[in-house]
Write a structure and sequence with these properties.
Largest sheet: 8 strands, mixed
Strand content: 5-15%
CATH topology: Jelly Rolls
Distance between the termini: 34 Å
CATH superfamily: q2cbj1_9rhob like domain
Structural class: alpha+beta
Strand order of the largest sheet: 1-2-10-7-12-5-4-3
CATH class: Mainly Beta
Bound molecules: 2-oxoglutaric acid, fe (ii) ion
Length: about 400
Amino acid sequence: MIDTTKSIEACANYYGQDSEEMKNYLLEGEKRALELPNRGPIDIDSNGLLSGVIREAYSKYGFYIFENVLNKDELEDIKSDLNRLSAKFPTGPESLFDSKGEPAMNANSKALTIVWSKPLGDPLGGTQLANGRHQIKMFEPKADESAPEAVPLILLGSLQFSDACLRTYAHPKLLKVAENINGDDFAPFNEALFIKEPGIGAAVSWHQDGVTHWESENFNEDIHGFNFMAQVYGSTAVNGVWVVPGTHKEGKIDIKKLVAKSGSERINGAVPMICNPGDVVMCNRQLLHGSFPNCGYEPRVTVNFGFHKRSSVLGTQGGGIHSESQVFNEEIIERRSRLLGYAIEARKQKYPDEKAFSYSPFLKSGKQFKWNEEARQNIIDYNLDDLSI
Ligand SMILES: O=C(O)CCC(=O)C(=O)O
Ligand SMILES: [Fe+2]
């Protein structure tokens, strides 16, 4: 586990008169997180069934930490793509050029690709962005003078920008988990990178992800799907996502009320996701979660990708957060699923000896994919079809 002693101290110091309280919150949260029985390797039996113990813990707490899923090579692969990508980030929110004056990595994108923030800011909290689901504004500590004016927080449509992320998307064990939770005809959601550099990385205010099914007569704990959160550098109390265990079963939560009851944005009972590099969290999208600005010393990059039950998206009017609101029909779901087809092929090219995941809908339709230059062109702006619910 990453030693956070120095980071907790440094982080608390940003919180002025609340610094002692922040320090205790971080320390106590870390302790309680480590006491939860919701971590371990992916355990799938010879029939392809995910262990009942894991399913129960996931259902009880709303998140489960799969340890050691991505090996060193895969992590290095992602890091090297990240380095290449960040060198080609636009110089700011309005810019189409990177720091060398060349076209930025997203210069031709029609879809939204980067969510920016001021350093250590909270760009979503208390705004109407994302359907107003981020109900409160988090404390925004003052970043160092040397910090850039704006920093990227979320990179959307990440599979078109990174082959390493595309390959991780097809990790056979993770897709097997998706199949167990959401059925063998599971559908994609969206993919993103959450980037939280030390001393500048922004907050993601407390929220629940789902937007469309809270009032559904079929409401249940899995109806808004889940996200995998793969940790490239690990994740700590200081830089990681915090969750309130069990809240995925409670319906839509009045976050303002909860914050008032807790006396501050340090919501009672919350715990951080504590991960080593290579761990992958499965997080229910209905779970109350959020992250503080990264005032510590360790970076966090999460390779995020989510999946739904087909019944949750088919025929549903999209929530309009990750894509224009439209009714998701078979055609859109099939089109959006091609990323799985390309990802599985891309992974086979890199890991020919690994047993590849086979996606049931492709078996049924006989659809075949090739990962090549043509496919690469084909996925530009694929995230315009994100199955946002
Ligand atoms: O990584 C974070 O800080 C926030 C992630 C999140 O909100 C999500 O994946 O839904
Ligand atoms: Fe979220």
